[in-house]
Design goal:
The complex is a heterodimer of chains A (729) and B (493). By secondary structure, chain A is an alpha+beta fold. Chain A contains 16 helices and 30 strands. Chain B has 493 residues and is of the alpha+beta class. The chains are: A alpha+beta (729), B alpha+beta (493).
Chain lengths: 729, 493
């Protein structure tokens, strides 16, 4: 099926199941420990061995020798495969850093050997015995230096109007530089795989992946084998946030170990290994210039940024992307430098580009509003746009950002705040209020599904994944809605390459795309049922198919043999002529301790515009989860780079500090009642990444309002404010 | 002598003959029992995904505590009831905390969920907890989640955890108590051979004899540090002696003169007595690790492992704590600060072990303050830890005891500053300057990821000033980093 034009009125506008607050259907499995994650699938294949990885301890150079004799002779060891034993593996089209093979070390903790043994302890012990000799080379690990050298060089990525003239003649201007640090996904489940490639022919990988089809394609390219010989399963994923979009070393090492030992091998990346072996969000440095008239209308915007990437690319953290679209303004120039560094590969993490871009841009907007003497909410409303400002012929399909701002301001009590910075006290706490806008695109990807109706029970099969997002539940809701069945009569099976390929989970495209895929398959099933009844006028209600004036139970229709249908939703080119996005306004209250500059967030409110909300329960969780991740980004998360040696120093959960319970205050989410007919038949856009966008800047702006101290260098730790605190308590 | 360990699981007594010296409870569950509901998220007690509940009799009452099974040794559950996420649902009917986690959408990707469920299970069985958001966040501070943003989990806890327990565990509590009483015996446990064993002596003499025979053995109390030697440093520790069954070592005795703390007393069991010594100690205690860590970890262990950034030694040194050591040769006592000789080196002879400590109660003319500085409020390691006790007579400091952690290779007293402040006047800040200055010659801190040397020194001096200001009343009563709990109270007021 092809989605060729915006949706008109359809059954989802009179939905019985979609849009209803429904607890996740996989909840009982998860709370009782019965949901199987990759590393614990003891039942899928017998005789599993355990693999353990060895990582390089230099940032760049060569391996000249590896002595594995002791390891090979250690108790329980079945196989040792070193990077010198095999030719460099192909770099798949989804990867940039080579995952294994050859003598070249390109980043710290690059996998250089896998030891396979009967137990984890034996494998780990033997891995420690491998003696590696390196020839270390000087690497480049310093983004700041690259920024200083690169600032102002290169052509603009996009430019409209006459930016220089607009700045020269502007009544009010701003020119500031902002910094965001490297960040880690830190999902709770480490990268894990069981691989069976015992015969060297057919490969099965039980893994933890957001994208089944991509994983399979990457494995085929990496090992240069036919895709048909590979099966990938990942029914439960313990979080991803982008970390599990692409093939990683766990699956590769498990497969190599399995081939060498001729037995299935399971392997998990130890937590302290993940931060440097796998991917992260790149740090950014961003210079933002704004120009406006006294009336508050933006006349020019310039945004120049740098982030780092692995040689060959892969970095999606382009903070200037959103700047092309978010606000009005006739003159605009954006430029992004992807600086090649020898750090581990930077890659997608929740809202790549927008997350760091809005951390900076929405502080700049706050600073500009202050210069103009305007309320920051009013300033944003004034500069709203309903078209792509750089291509005014391209409208937004459905943009209700102004409503987000207005509803949020009212619900938060924004007008009651003290606009004067550093002027509100609550005991020893300086209290401040801040807000920020948020924008994140709403892409869609081709997505397929198969549905089976047997004795009135519908089974949905698709290789879509549920990474904590709620896919199981919203796909069941979609199937139930389409066939007029109660939710209990729908089973959803996910994450298996034997099922039709879906969009997968990522980029905020999963919910919109995969529900559309299930819709397409259900349409095909309904047509098949209509064909059997020799009519083209059917409705599906209360477990019945209604043809003319006759109601036939679906149980009866599918009593003898199951009826199956399969289809894939493709999204038409008409979407290219529209900007389809999601929007939010965030409001935050913080307390900053007058003596120590400790920042505590006291309450948070998000108002979101994301089309139809398929399930208010799962959607709300996605947004407050994003807000909490952004709270960590604002106040504590930072991978510290050891610049001489080229690695992230704080590579465990003790050193990389995500938000904990006590950091999280009252949080509320309001979804605007909007529909976007241009996105899909369900008129629903994703929210998984919207929740992290803009929030950190709202916290930064609230901190400024509390203290009068502007911090432009995340995370906002107390050492950055301590010397500017008020003299007296 | 017993060559097995025994514990309860699912209402049955489990007896194991084969227990490795470094085998963890998590490995036992996942590898031996194939009960994989309990997850490993980090392997070092940071994330709480591996949380299980241990039921033990405390003064005859059945108490459930959350513990990190990834760093808990299997032998250490001897005599306890082990409860995992698989044990809660009854004939496929979810336990109230499980049902609430579903209803309030407290589970998303689900990987941290079993750990949360078990922490909430222990809260469900804890009696007399104040029903509040802050009580919940404190209870589950040791469980990290990256999906939900925590709020739905707290909501689930508020819904499910504060009514009188009414589940299979409460129904059979009497039976469980009887079974646990039967399991408690006074035999030494020794499993393995003389070159590789797990052992838990039942008496002090038994310990002295065994340790005298095997001075190379590892002594373990709560395993919140030793567990990491195994899972993170990958150390080979073939001989393990657990102190947890020696009668009397868990004692906590408060008297007008001070608090006597046995080597096996945990942070949890000492919290009340320490809060009573000083409110600052109460705040410090709450900020050590997490609920899981405080339930397992001991004050004695925090001292005996000799860490330069341990939270309790600076405070205990400033209070003038005495340490008791024992061996087959006899007992001795020494001032705590004398115990720390150098990085990783303590004044502990071969075969000698810590049996307890005595913390003197500050007298009416003494003022005590201590402050922990770390990046995150809960679950974090100190960058700098400062502790101060001033004896003040007629407005003059007649004695000063100042100790810091994170400023040297060991917890260390600031001797120059102590001397310089002796004679200083509380109502004249100009007499404090010499003390602040003297700190510069007391310490040469290092730069690492937690803090730079400059930050450490500046903070150390600021903390000293803060203590003096608070005590002298030249500033508001408290100029300290308030806990979120206190911040909440501020707001309420």
């Amino acid at each position: 099926m092809k989605f060729e034009e915006p949706t008109s009125d359809n059954l989802f506008d009179r939905a019985m199941v979609i849009g209803k607050a429904t607890p996740r259907i996989d909840g009982p499995l998860k709370v009782s420990g019965q949901a199987p994650y990759a590393y614990e699938r003891h039942d899928v294949v017998e005789d599993q061995l355990v693999g353990y990885p060895l990582g390089a301890t230099i940032g760049r150079g060569r391996i000249t020798a590896m002595d594995t004799e002791a390891a090979r002779n250690a108790p329980g060891v079945a196989a040792v495969v070193t990077t010198l034993d095999i030719d460099p593996l192909e770099i798949s089209s989804f990867n940039n850093a080579r995952l294994f093979g050859g003598n070249e070390v390109r980043h710290y903790h690059q996998a250089i050997a896998v030891v396979v043994a009967e137990t984890l302890e034996q494998a780990r012990h033997a891995a420690e015995m491998i003696d590696v000799t390196y020839e270390e080379e000087e690497g480049n690990f310093d983004l700041e230096k690259a920024w200083q050298n690169g600032l102002g060089t290169d052509e603009a990525d996009a430019e409209t109007g006459n930016v220089d003239e607009a700045f020269a003649s502007a009544e009010v201007t701003l020119d500031e530089t902002y910094r965001t640090p490297d960040q880690s996904h830190a999902m709770m489940e480490p990268h894990s795989s069981i691989a069976d490639w015992s015969d060297g022919e057919n490969m099965t990988v039980w893994t933890s992946s957001q994208m089944i089809a991509w994983a399979r394609k990457s494995l085929a390219e990496t090992f240069d084998i036919d895709e048909d010989r590979i099966r990938v399963e990942s029914p439960f994923v313990g979080g991803g946030f982008g970390a599990k979009l692409f093939l990683r070393s766990d699956a590769v090492l498990a497969a190599l170990g399995s081939r060498a030992a001729q037995r299935p091998v399971k392997l998990t990346l130890p937590r302290p290994f993940i931060f440097n072996n796998a991917t992260h969000r790149s740090a950014t440095i961003q210079r933002i210039r704004l120009a406006a008239g006294q009336d508050g209308r933006l006349t020019a915007i310039e945004h120049e940024a740098a982030a780092h990437e692995f040689e060959g690319g892969g970095n999606e953290e382009n903070p200037t992307n959103l700047t092309k679209l978010f606000y009005a303004g006739a003159n605009r120039r954006v430029k992004h430098h992807d600086v090649v560094l020898d750090l581990p590969e930077s890659s997608s993490m929740r809202a790549p580009g927008e997350a760091s871009g809005l951390m900076a841009f929405e502080i700049a907007m706050d600073e500009m509003a202050e210069k103009l003497g305007m309320d920051p909410v009013e300033f944003r409303i004034l500069n709203d746009t309903q078209v792509d400002p750089m291509n005014p012929d391209v409208p937004f399909s459905d943009r209700n950002f102004v409503d987000c701002l207005k509803v949020g301001a009212e619900r938060f009590g924004w007008s009651d705040r003290n606009r004067k910075p550093g002027d509100t006290r609550d005991g020893l706490w300086m209290v401040g209020h801040g807000m920020a806008g948020a924008y994140r695109g709403a892409p869609t990807l081709t997505s397929g599904a198969r549905v089976r109706l047997e004795r009135g029970h519908l089974t949905v099969e698709t290789d879509m994944t549920d990474i904590g997002t709620g896919s199981y539940t919203i796909l069941a809701q979609t199937g139930a809605e389409m066939l007029g069945l109660p939710l209990e009569q729908v089973t959803v099976k996910l994450g298996d390459s034997r099922f039709p390929a879906s969009s997968g989970s990522g980029g905020q495209f999963g919910a919109a795309s995969s529900t559309a895929g299930v819709y397409a398959a259900c349409v095909a099933l309904r047509e098949e049922i209509a064909r059997r009844l020799e009519t083209d006028d059917v409705r599906f209600e209360d477990g019945n198919v209604i043809a003319g004036n006759k109601a036939i139970p679906l149980e009866e229709i599918s009593a003898d043999a199951e009826i199956t249908a399969e289809d894939t939703m493709e999204f038409g080119d008409f979407q290219d002529d529209l900007e389809i996005g999601t929007f939010a306004a965030h409001f935050v209250e913080v307390g900053v301790h007058a003596a120590t500059a400790e920042v505590r967030v006291r309450r948070m409110l998000a108002v979101c515009d994301a089309g139809r909300i398929l399930n208010p329960v799962t959607a709300r969780s996605q947004v407050i989860g994003g807000m909490t991740m952004a709270l960590g980004a604002a106040l504590s998360e930072q991978l510290a780079v050891d610049k001489p040696r080229g690695y992230f120093v704080n590579h465990d959960l003790a050193g990389y500090e995500v938000a904990v319970h006590a950091d999280v205050p009252d949080q509320e989410v309001i979804f605007l009642d909007t529909l976007d007919p241009a996105i899909s038949p369900l008129k629903a856009k994703g929210v998984g990444e919207l929740g992290i966008c803009g929030v950190a800047a709202a916290i930064a702006n609230a901190t400024y309002n509390a203290t009068g101290i502007r911090v432009r260098d995340y995370p906002i730790t107390l050492d950055k404010m301590l010397d500017r605190l008020p003299e007296t308590f | 002598m017993r060559d097995t360990i025994r514990f309860l699981k699912g209402g049955q007594v489990v007896e194991l003959e084969n227990v490795g010296p470094t085998e963890t409870v998590l490995d036992y569950l996942r590898l031996r029992c194939r009960q994989t509901g309990t997850k490993e998220g980090c392997g070092e007690g940071d994330c709480g995904a591996c949380t299980v509940a241990l039921g033990r009799l405390v003064d005859g009452k059945l108490v459930y505590q959350p513990v990190n099974s990834c760093i808990l040794l299997l032998g250490m559950i001897d005599g306890a009831e082990l409860v995992t996420v698989e044990d809660l649902a009854l004939d496929s009917k979810l336990h109230p905390v499980q049902a609430a986690m579903v209803e309030f959408h407290g589970s998303q990707c689900g990987f941290c969920t079993p750990g949360f469920v078990m922490s909430l299970f222990t809260l469900y069985h804890a009696h007399g907890q104040e029903k509040s958001r802050k009580a919940v966040t404190e209870w589950i501070a040791g469980n990290l989640c990256r999906c939900t943003g925590y709020r739905p989990i707290v909501d689930a806890a508020l819904d499910a955890c504060f009514d009188a327990a009414d589940d299979a565990f409460s129904w059979r509590a009497n039976e469980t108590r009887e079974l646990l009483q039967k399991l408690a015996d006074s035999r030494d446990v020794f499993i393995g051979e003389s070159d590789s064993f797990f052992s838990s002596p039942a008496t002090l003499d038994g310990l002295a004899a065994l340790y005298g025979q095997h001075p190379d053995a590892t002594l373990v109390a709560g395993a919140t540090d030793v567990g990491l030697w195994i899972t993170k440093q990958l150390r080979d520790l073939p001989k393990m002696i657990w102190l947890g069954r020696i009668e009397g070592l868990e004692r906590v005795e408060s008297s007008p003169s001070g608090v006597l703390i046995g080597a096996m007393a945990t942070y949890e069991t000492t919290e009340e007595a320490m809060s009573d010594l000083s409110p600052d100690l109460g705040v410090l205690w709450k900020r050590i690790g997490s609920k899981q860590v405080r339930a397992s970890g001991t004050v004695g262990g925090n001292i005996a492992n000799g860490s330069p950034i341990g939270d309790t030694p600076p405070a205990l040194i400033a209070l003038g704590t005495t340490l008791e050591l024992h061996s087959s040769e006899g007992s001795r006592a020494l001032p705590l600060e004398k115990f720390f000789l150098d990085y990783g080196k303590q004044d502990r002879n071969s075969g000698e072990f810590v049996t307890g400590l005595f913390v003197p109660r500050p007298s009416s003319n003494q003022a005590f303050r201590c402050y922990k500085i770390s990046k995150r409020f809960d679950q974090d390691i100190s960058s700098v830890m400062g502790a101060f006790r001033f004896t003040i007579d007629d407005g003059t400091i007649t004695d000063a005891r100042i100790a810091y952690g994170g400023m040297a290779a060991t917890p260390k007293r600031a001797e120059h500053a102590e001397r310089a402040l002796t004679g200083a006047l509380m109502d004249d800040p100009s007499t404090w300057g010499a003390g602040m200055q003297a700190l510069l010659s007391d310490y040469k801190p290092m730069t690492d990821m937690r803090a730079s040397a400059e930050y450490r020194m500046e903070t150390a001096r600021a903390l000293l000033a803060k203590a003096l200001m608070e005590i002298s009343g030249t500033a508001p009563d408290e100029i300290r980093v308030l806990a979120i709990r206190e911040a909440d109270n501020d707001r309420a007021a």
